[in-house]
Every structure is written in C-alpha cells, then in structure tokens.
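Predict both folds.
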Amino acid sequence: MGMELFAGFARIAAEGAAAKGPEEALYALTRALPALLGDPSAVLRPNAFREDPPPRVGAACAAFLRTADGLHHMIVAPVNFAPEQYHELVDIKLGHPGEVAHTHQPMLLRDTALHASFVKILQSFRAGSSIFAPLMWQGSYLGVLICANAARNTFGEADLIAHRGFAALAASLWVAQGGPEWMEAQDLPSLPRRSVGT
C-alpha cells in the first residue's frame, strides 16, 4: 500500500501540474483518491452500510472551495456526486465541512452514525465513513478536501495523514492554476443551491 500511495501522489502531482485550469487540476486528485485511500475490506464487514440495500456507488470525493464572498463552499471537481450537485453552493457553516472551515483542522469520521451532528450533503449515497482536510495557502483557508465511503470504518488515522498531504497538494495546484481568480469570476447567483437535509 505504501508504494502504491507514493506512486499515486507522484502521478497526481504530474497530472495536476499539466492540467488546463484549476478545476481540472483538482480532478486529478478527486478521481484518484477513492482508490488510493481507505480499507477496501470494510465493505465485507457485517453491518458495513447505513443503507439497505447497499448503494451501487460506494465512494466519492470533492473539493469544497470557499466562495469569494466567504458565505459558501462550492462543490468543485466532484466524483460520484449527484449531477445536480456540480458547483452547488453549500452554506460555509453547514455540517463537518463547516466545522473544518471554522477550525482549519482535519477530521476523521470512522463511522458517521456515531456523530449526531453529521449532515447528509452528498446526495448519491449515505456516507458511512468520511475524511476532511483543509486546503490552506499561506495561512488562508481555501476550502476542504473530502473523501467519503458508504462502508463504515473505511478510513483510519493513516488515511487521514495521507489525505492531509493530498490536501496540501490540492491547495498548491489550485493557487498555481489560478483557482482564486477562477472563483472570483463565478456568477454565484446563477449557481444551484439546495436545502440540505440530515
């Protein structure tokens, strides 16, 4: 697993640097992370899923980027999110992404059912395990990198450590590829918003 992770990091860094824009650079991460992080055997454990039957798609990843007005996270480079959630605006104070925005600290939810404050933002399935890492640049909060899996106890401490490294790479790629300028240019009133349930 260690060598695979290092190889993945190198491949993602190269693809992100070669991308033709900030969101394309983030897709280099969000498309790869579901296969690189987490325990694939978690799906085999009894009572692994919060939904019955288990969802058809079991892993998702996205960057929630702080909008220029500081009021929302925009869902950017989503993988296995519902199509209508592409560039969806989510209140920057909502749920665990909101807590990361406030504290600038990473979070590991091994089993989301054990967290009464867990808010279901992802619409394609109910996450059983999630990891969050802030995207920071020179002390400023840019957003949060999120991976979710339908199976409980998919993610552990080692995954969170790796995820923090990928978040640092994501922040660097976002800035290098002109992400802040891209965000400034977005027409926020025209973007989808949703009343998110628990």
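Second protein follows, with its predicted structure tokens after the sequence.
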Amino acid sequence: MKLISLLSVIMLFSNSFLLTCSRENNVDNCTPSSLPFTSIETYFGCPNTKYSMDIDLNNTYTIIRNQAQFDQLVTISEDCPINLDLTNYDLIIGKKSLNSGNQNIEYEYFTDDCQTLVLRVTFNQDETLMAPNLTYHALVPKISDSETLQVETVVN
C-alpha cells in the first residue's frame, strides 16, 4: 500500500511539473510560422522604394515606431506622399551595399520560436556593374518588448 501511495505522489508531482513547464515555457511548443507584413510599395502604391526611399544607415537596419521618427529619418520621393499608421505597425528599414546590380528584393517574415521574429531580406542580383546601396523595408504588426528581432540579409 505504501508503494502505491508513493508512486501516486511521484506521478502527481511529475504531471504537475510538466504542466507547469508547458504553461511557462510556451516557446518550447512553438512551431516556426510565417507572419503577416506589408510594404510601402504595396500599401501606398509607391514604386521602386529601394531607390526612391532613403535613410542614413550603412549595412544595418532600425525600427521606426512613430510618424515623427519616420519624418525625421526617412526621405522619400515626392511622388509618394505617405502617412503611415504606426500605431498598429512598426517599420523595419535598412540599407545594404551591393557589388552588382539588383533585379529584385524578396522578403520573408516569420517567427522561429515565438519570441524571435526574423525578417529575411533576399537581394536577387544580376551581372550589371552597378553597385547600388539599396533601402529595404517591411511594415510589420507592432513588435512587443518581449520579442526580439533579427534581420538576415541574403545576396543571391
């Protein structure tokens, strides 16, 4: 009888420990998934922002969280007057220096562990001798203080 009681206590303790861990560490149960995002090109119809939008950065990125920051840091062609909704979105914006011409830029936005957000920016290059310094960006739902952002740039 003592053995059955001891086993019951051990099993009860094990089950409650496992349940506690799964509630507290939701990250362990998270599966990688795509996240929604948009761009100024898509949202506002602004053409070719890789050339017509500029920010004073060099092979890095920043997160713009309000219109005042955007107005202060970003210049954009007069052909594209915009008023961003930065109450619901953050703007991830960066610059990348390249050794050859660029055909297009592709974006992926995903989470790999439910707390790390990843923006993968792929520059598809061509053989022209232009060496552009391109602006890339993504409008993403607000990033919380508990989330970490990584920006990966890939040159093809």
